[in-house]
């Protein structure tokens, strides 16, 4: 990509297209095929030296003037007439769509002029297009938005992972402004930013036999350098923006990315002839780089055989991350291990945020204040409500059925018989949600739920009547199959419904379920109510808003003639697990009301939020497994212990899939699911851990940190020195796995009186030492240095009674026996704690 070094053409553009003109521009002034003075031609081609948005589909402008006159059929997303093509979300006619698009263009330009970045982020215009507009309408004398409009170069320069899809782009620009040098023009800074990205992101792909045979160049979307605007669907009709490619053999072509599953895809253009020309063999690698004009270069047979982005080369960029490691992808599987009280669970929460919202951590800083901990936990809770992170504790009774899937018994409300359903465990549920993509979305979903009733609705049998669901989605309908094409529009009661059923040949009692279903569908459901479409008992696939009254539409092919019109707000594929919305699983009943306690209103609001993060493609998911070593890992993970390996996950070169034993469904572990375990080494040492688990996880030691207690004193007692001294003694008398963690004493930072310290020792430290040493009080006394203290300052003292008083003259029966007790008075004296240090004398 080339960058201009002056603002001459920019100034000319503003003279031709001042903001005032945008408010009154006509469709022809906005877009006319072949007119080099129309607004979108200026932005795409004449201003290309201020950051390119050229190439790809003209739909990126919302509406465009057509060159051809060929009749084209639209779909639920795209519309055409003989003059224009446009996105249906902006309007049903070109006039209506243009009015909406012009309003959005003006809003972006005004927000850029006033520095309101958050409003630009919320614009429904495409990301690159809206930020291109924003660049040219920001204050020319003091610009802050660089002319780079795709996310990945911005993320790279800030040291954030390429998978970060949560940080608003406006916030990225604000952070970048702090890295721009005082005397550096916006053009020079933009070029430096872009060149840093190009130089540091060569991408290499290891070829397999299958890829060579089919002419595929597979792409890991998490680390690939391609912008999201190039991500297309599986069919030739579902293409996205294209880019120009050139191989080292001279072949040139334009293509987009065919996305096959979340996180993985391939170039849509096949490279069979190129592979033949270079004599490609399995194991060879293709390196993808980008030249200064934006063309992607493919080079073959490089020396390295790594898969993914190669290590960054040295650069003169001054952009250094607050945490350099944030630029690297965190390990997919890791275990935090250490003695009790070292903050493993708290650190697991922080590591989850490093994966899910790294920019939040950067803003939060590295201090250890209570306010930071509070904000950290609050953000974690928000992500948990969105279903992006889950927490589970392993124990001796935890099983494969809890973790992956198992059979669950329940009573069928219709037959009143016991039935057994396959129910997903916490890990499978998280994996399924990680695979889910949002395939339908309405930008103005209602967030105010008061006054609305929410209904569960089945749209045909999910296994045998998929066409019913597809028809409902396409036409904006909810269909019900009860009633044999009978008309229930005049029914005012259940008795009326019963009579209509009878007239159509169905003799039903008032309590039969078909009458209940029709009564709910016809009489109880109202306009403005919400419907949740289930898929079986354990998943849901759409959320909609009822927009019309009941009507009968007779059908010859089936009985689905009972109709309500619905505006579909969200649709997911594959379906989301019920836990993303519900507190318990769905019933078999076709339709019924979801009440508080059954549905989570917080989760529903999260799903309906404008950014709707619950089903973002490639959005990471995190499972925190507390006390991972307390469960039977082999029994809990089962065959999935192999599938969690990075190289065996879906989309990887050696991806594996298994058939699950209960559901008989094929299953693989997505590449965007992270496992974070915690392990208390006092319960079980690392050496005793399952070997299969050990080799599939990265282990991060979390030892006691006496330095975190630096500056904390109680009655002149240096708590850092006390902890360090006791731990040295424990390491010698027992081992390092049973040391004491600093977290036991962190509360003294805010309440450093002696009574608080006394409570910590009496209720936490002494009981823990009793457990460690199996009530060997002599060694406990050594840890506390009691044997060197003066009387009155010893925590552990011999009992005041003698053995002879209890057993008589025992002789050699119990010669070594000693009775011990705690001297509670000693716990309230500063000298007792000071005596832990040194020779015990105070």
List the defining traits of the structure above.
842 residues, alpha+beta, At1g16640 B3 domain, Rossmann fold, 5 domains, eight-stranded mixed sheet, 34 strands, 18% strand
Structure description:
The protein is α+β, with helices and mostly antiparallel strands. The chain has 5 domains: 8-145, no CATH class; 203-309, DNA-binding pseudobarrel domain (At1g16640 B3 domain, Beta Barrel), CATH 2.40.330.10; 330-436 and 616-702, P-loop containing nucleotide triphosphate hydrolases (Rossmann fold, 3-Layer(aba) Sandwich); 438-612, ph1033 like fold; 706-834, no CATH class. 31% of the residues lie in helices and 18% in strands. The protein contains 29 helices and 34 strands. Strands 18, 19, 20, 21, 22, 23, 24 and 25 form an 8-stranded mixed β-sheet that branches. Mean pLDDT is 85; it is low at 302-327 and 613-617.
In the predicted model, the low-confidence regions spanning at least 5 consecutive residues are: 302-327, 613-617
C-alpha end-to-end distance: 73 Å
Give me the CATH architecture of the largest domain, please: 3-Layer(aba) Sandwich
Number of strands: 34
What is Rg? 33 Å
Number of domains: 5
Any idea of the CATH class of the largest domain? Answer: Alpha Beta
GO molecular function, one term: ATP binding
InterPro entries: AAA+_ATPase (IPR003593), ATPase_dyneun-rel_AAA (IPR011704), Methyl-DNA_Rec/Restrict_Enz (IPR052934), P-loop_NTPase (IPR027417)
Protein name: McrB
